[in-house]
Input
Amino acid sequence: MILLASVFSCNEKEYKEDEVSSIDKKASIETELSVQHIDTADVLVTTHKIWKDKKLIKEIVKRDTIPSLGDTLMESEDKDGVVHKDNTKKDYEFYITVQ
Output
């Protein structure tokens, strides 16, 4: 019975309380954060989209160079089940405070 319950729980999509599935474009600001890895540094890209009456009024894009976190060893498995070890860039974690 426990095995059956664990199989079903693995198939269920993880519920994320704070995940947004759609944006109310009547009056909202949509913000996207991403990091682009370059040679010795990273670039933090912040994009703001201002929506009013279902129209994109303005898009603001800002890029800032930030220090790279270096590399990390990561294991990945291909479709044949073979495990590969690759060096990849470490990613920043995002914590956002909205007031």
Summary: Residues 1-9 have pLDDT under 50 and may be disordered. The beta strands are 27-37, 41-52, 55-67, 71-77, 83-89. The helical segments are 2-11.
